[in-house]
Write a structure and sequence with these properties.
- This protein has 516 residues and is an alpha/beta fold.
- The protein has a single domain (7-508), classed as Alpha/Beta hydrolase fold, catalytic domain (Rossmann fold), CATH 3.40.50.1820.
- It is 33% helix and 16% strand.
- It has 16 helices and 13 strands.
- Strands 1, 2, 3, 4, 5, 6, 7, 8, 9, 10, 11, 12 and 13 form a 13-stranded mixed β-sheet that branches.
- The longest helix is centred in the C-terminal third of the chain and has 25 residues, at 370-394.
- It is globular and about 65 Å long.
- It comes from Microbacterium proteolyticum.
- Pfam families: COesterase.
- Keywords: Hydrolase.
- This is Carboxylic ester hydrolase.
Length: 516
């Protein structure tokens, strides 16, 4: 006989919500923070959800944004897909102590996949160990969240940067309501991985985000993969063509709004696949430099030390690109031919800019086997270099801590992936064995994994509490500066290395800005 967890009730400005208590952690799930984006609201800015009367059940996750199927990203048992997907979830310790610092999670998934309901992001362990409040949220994905039709259909009343606006709306909800859940609105850390990390670094360059968060953590951020309006127009034109809609024809705007969501997702998937194939090293969907909400390229703002002056914890994984190669993903150029194509495109799109030559760049990979060179270049142009650029610039305006995650679980080593993209996530969330088919730690090394997880959680939560990311019993982690360039290497035993990326910086050039 299944016993339901006991209920818990909280009254916030947005309404009275009834959640549940399990393993000494309270949770409220599926709280709507913005109105539906369906029909006339499709491709429009989010609108804050109205305050609600009565008692609102909050024990089940909300719908996830419609997206292509991806077996590598389980969305959670019983979840449904619906455009009405702008909801969030709150986890808190089961006591009245506080107010506690708040950690707001932005999930990854190439701006196309994922949700806050993924079992990996169950915050019970992080809340318990870190004495923090955790908020996870949904934002619109793929074409629904990142297409910008305002230029292609200028009279259609369409808005842009929808997903970024969704996140800003959720952060405003947190500022207004989190106190009722035991959180401190003056100690909000926004953190995310991959696309979520990209949103974090973008927020640091978004003027209207000032005051909505006070610390930031960016894990494997594609910080330089943010593009301008010309690129947005090309993506929009291709998206409309795949839908069979001629923007010059009367009724084109209505046709876009009335297109079945399955067709929108299918066209978005096609664009997602096509763009990085024809334009290596770029993404189809990402925030847009619109001159308004996002005035400039985030990577340029951050490298020049002009971002929001909040402390930043940032880093990447040692073998980021191996997962993309393993999955035969088009997102990152791996083969020599595609990398050569990327260098040609970089030179063509940056006339007058002194870029590193292919030969100069390859000096950083002379120690690698031939087959691994492409993985190294792809890893660095996609993740490590932008991360270094951000750290170098942002440390002028706020404390920065730089890390590299090097530990590879036994199963990942066995199949040759190493410390690949997203492999740090089970450690951070403390969800090391997510199901009976998960072999990652069942092949051995669970105790080592638990030690690494405990240290990561202590470091991340100490940072959220307002201090340095210390694990108390492990190596000190000095803040990053351009003299020592200290990096924490996370492995079986954490250790710090000064100027870990010296060879990489010399090969690519210290002064190279974003290439696109």
């Amino acid at each position: 006989m299944t016993v339901s967890p006991p209920p818990c009730r909280v009254t916030a400005p947005a309404g009275t919500f009834t959640g549940s208590v399990e393993r000494a952690v309270r949770s409220w799930r599926g709280i709507r923070f913005a109105l539906s984006a369906v029909g006339e609201r499709r491709f429009r800015d989010p609108v804050a959800a109205p305050d609600l009367d009565g008692e609102i059940p909050a024990t089940s996750f909300g719908a996830v944004c419609p997206q292509p199927e991806n077996p590598a990203i389980p969305l959670g048992e019983g979840t449904v897909q619906d455009e009405d997907c702008l909801s969030l979830n709150v986890w808190a310790p089961d006591d009245t102590n506080g107010p506690r610092p708040v950690m707001v999670w932005l999930h990854g998934g190439a701006y196309t996949f994922g949700s806050s309901s993924q079992p990996l992001y169950d915050a019970t362990s992080l809340v318990s160990s870190g004495d923090v409040i955790v908020v996870t949220l949904n934002y619109r994905l793929g074409a629904l969240g990142f297409i910008d039709l305002s230029d292609a259909l200028p009279s259609g009343g369409f808005d842009g940067n929808l997903a970024l606006k969704d996140v800003l709306m959720a952060l405003r909800w947190v500022q207004r309501n989190i106190g009722a859940f035991g959180g401190d609105p003056d100690r909000v850390t926004v953190f995310g991985e991959s696309a979520g990390g990209g949103l974090v670094t973008t927020l640091l360059a978004t003027p209207s985000a000032a005051g909505l968060f006070h610390r930031a953590i960016a894990q494997s951020s594609p910080a330089s993969s943010v593009y301008g309006p010309e690129r947005a127009r090309r993506v929009a034109d291709r998206f409309l063509a795949l839908l069979g809609i001629d923007p010059s024809e009367p009724g084109a705007s209505d046709a876009v709004r009335s297109t079945p969501v399955a067709d929108v997702v299918a066209a978005g998937k096609a664009v997602y696949t096509e763009v990085p194939t024809t334009d290596p090293g770029t993404l189809a969907f990402a925030p847009v430099i619109d001159g308004d909400l996002l005035p400039e390229a985030p990577i340029r703002v951050l490298q020049e030390g002009r971002g929001l002056p909040v402390p930043l914890l940032i880093g990447t994984n040692k073998d980021e690109a191996s997962l993309f190669s393993f999955m035969k993903s088009p997102l990152i150029p791996i083969t020599g031919e595609r990398i050569d194509q990327m260098f040609v495109a970089m030179a063509a799109e940056n006339p007058g800019v002194e870029l590193p030559t292919r030969e100069q760049v390859l000096t950083a990979y002379e120690h690698l086997r031939h087959r691994a060179v492409g993985l190294g270049v792809a890893r660095d142009i996609g993740f490590r270099l932008p991360t270094i650029w951000v750290a170098e610039g942002h440390c002028r305006v706020a404390p920065v801590w730089l890390y590299r995650f090097d530990h590879a679980a036994p199963f990942l080593r066995l199949i040759g992936l190493g410390a690949t993209h997203a492999s740090e996530l089970p450690y951070l969330w403390g969800n090391l064995v997510s199901g009976p088919k998960d072999l990652t730690f069942r092949l051995g090394g669970l105790r080592v994994a638990e030690d690494i997880s405990s240290r990561m959680q202590r470091r991340w939560s100490a940072f959220a509490h307002g201090g340095e990311p210390s694990a108390s019993t492990e190596s000190d982690w000095p803040a990053y500066d351009v003299a020592a360039r200290t990096t924490l290497v996370i492995d079986r035993r954490d250790h710090v290395v000064d100027d870990l990326d010296a060879d990489l910086r010399r090969a690519w050039g210290d002064d190279v800005l974003a290439f696109r």
